[in-house]
Structures are given as structure tokens and as C-alpha cells.
């Protein structure tokens, strides 16, 4: 009977070790999930910050380009028509220039994100 009790205690001890290992594994898995969630949250915040900076830079570049275009057009008009008021720039040309500048700045400022932002086009 002593052998049976010893066997029973050994089985109980082994079973308890398995349960303890399972509990530790569950805790480790929960910790890994929490760490992954934290990393995803941090990555999302970083992506939003990058997008915000890129948008601010693009707006600044648009303002700079618009002023440069206006100055160049005014200079051309002053040179070409003896001081007459410059003609309004062609809206389609200005829009095309602004779009090209925005695409170039986006590619330069967010090289790792550009394929996702442009749908695979560079």
C-alpha cells in the first residue's frame, strides 16, 4: 500500500507540474499579446505622426511653390508686356505642378510608405 501511495503522490506531483507549466505558458502568452498590442499602438501613433509631418511639409512646399510661380509669372509679365498686369496663371498648369511636387515630396519624405500611399505606383 505504501507503494500505491507513493505512486499516487508521484502522479499528483507530476500533474501539478504540468498544471503549473500550463499556467506559466498562459501567462507568457498573455504577456506577449500585451507587448504586441503595445507595439502596434506605438507603430500606429508613429505612422500618424509621420503622415502629419508629411502633410505639413507638403502644405509648406505648396505655399513656397505658389509664391515662386507667382513671382516668376509676374517677372515674365513685367518683362514681356512693359509693366502691364500679369495674366492669371493657367489653373490646370498650376494644379499639375502642385500635384507633381506633392508626389515628389511624398516619395522623398516617406520612402517606406510610398508604395502603400500610391497604390503600388512610385
Account of the 3D structure:
The protein is mostly helical and 122 residues long. Helix 1 packs antiparallel against helix 2. It is rod-shaped and about 115 Å long. The model has no long low-confidence stretch (mean pLDDT 85).
Which helices and strands, and how do they pair?
Elements: H1 2-80, H2 91-109, H3 114-117
Strand content of the residues, in percent?
under 5%
Write down the Rg. 33 Å
Reading the helices and strands in chain order gives: HHH
Q: What's the number of structural domains?
A: 1
| Global geometry | rod-shaped
Percentage of residues in helical conformation: over 70%
Structural class: mainly alpha
Low-confidence stretches: none
Overall strand count? 0
Largest sheet data: none
Please report the number of helical segments: 3
CA distance, first residue to last residue: 80 Å
Mean pLDDT: 85
Describe the structure concisely.
The protein is mainly alpha-helical and 122 residues long.
List keywords for this structure.
122 residues, mainly alpha, 3 helices, 84% helix
